[in-house]
């Protein structure tokens, strides 16, 4: 008779424990490792690049699910009307609702985990900063997050654009100008310079830079920035008219500061609309 | 029923002797402690992720525990040869099956209670809270799901050895967890023979999603209507009874040869 206790659970437990240990260790190692540029790659990127990206994307998706109060953006679209479906709808509600107020803070841990899993997940960094600033009213933590993002992604201009706008919202215009210059020097980063989104971003950078120069009294620099922007999008007639007024030595009707503040204004509602609701648009 | 209860107590004693539950409990506790250690900008009362991960772990560990303990009950009696003295006693095979099911279910449910209490404790430690009524509803429906899982494990082990029964049980229940909730969507775009097959699967496979109240619990949707919880409980009870009957049909005429076993 076999008196040895059965150990048939151990293989499963070993696999789960090993996976959990590897994940935890991986997170610590990534945080402690010297920063690699995205272009540079590195051993961890080489070995775990894709799996880390997939995990990070999943965690980002989970943040989106938390924003929609547990209802994934690819929620079921059921065509059947059976008692099972009716019961399911009561047990697991699928109404379209957003986390509001303090509840929006619940998405932050998932975004933090997403950035820890893949520090090159720029969207996760930006959305995290967005919610810290708008949902929780913690501009200090948002800036800390963007600085951390910049440390991990020194060649990315999007992080710098967001940081510059955060500086503008908090009234640090000189710092904002410096950060914008750094962003312009890094444009287009890893993106195609002819890609519409990267061109739009460059136009945004130039426009913000122009308004900041105008505020500082550097009219010639402002005109140059606006000219460069119009070279990309000549159809922006409002900026064109403003540029002509400045060139003629005049004073535009609307102040640069008011326009700039309007451009960079953010609210929790905007955050929802601009970021996670992109998913909703895709679904529709 | 008294004899089934006695058999169940033997299962409990055996489970206490084995270390499975302690190991699983330590794993859950370690996971939750890791969650506590995660510093999220020092934000207090952000506990949604702890609730989500804690309850997910409870479901996963409960699934593993329910399958692994249920599939070995009958094959273990057979390989050890203890089935002969057991059946020599005035115990019917139905009582044996019900006794084994009851024993495993109570043990797994107790482990689950421990998992829920641990998760609740960790959430409370971080300054969060669960809606008490939703928590009770979630636990009750989880216990019903475990009853079905244990019944499936017992049913499969009546005609398969422990390893084969485990594999089959994981495939069957894994499919039920992952695929069955989406069959209704697939049916909208599937016709003909495939549609008929999907329709059959839709009604034949257990709908474990009807026992999962995690969304309500984690995202504060409030308690579910009592009627819905009652309906899901009744559905689970019928499924359990169905699988236990299948187990009995598979086991009532099974012959054991001492020579083959020993």
Description:
The complex is a heterodimer of chains A (284) and B (262). Chain A is an all-alpha fold and 284 residues long. Helix content of chain A is 67%, strand content 0%. Chain A is built from 13 helices and no strands. Chain A is globular and about 85 Å long. Chain A starts with 9 loop residues before the first helix and ends with a helix. The mean pLDDT of chain B is 89. Chain B is globular, with a radius of gyration of 20 Å. By secondary structure, chain B is mainly α. Chain B is 78% helix and 0% strand. Chain B has one domain. The two termini of chain B are 31 Å apart. Chains A and B meet through helix 1, helix 3 and helix 4 of A and helix 2, helix 3, helix 8, helix 10 and helix 11 of B.
Specify which chain pair forms the largest interface: A-B, 47 and 56 residues
Q: Give unreliable regions of chain A as ranges.
A: 1-5, 36-40
Number of domains of chain A: 2
Q: How many β-strand runs of chain A?
A: 0
Helix content of chain A: 55-70%
Q: Quickly give the structural class of chain B.
A: mainly alpha
Share in helix of chain B: over 70%
Biggest sheet character of chain B: none
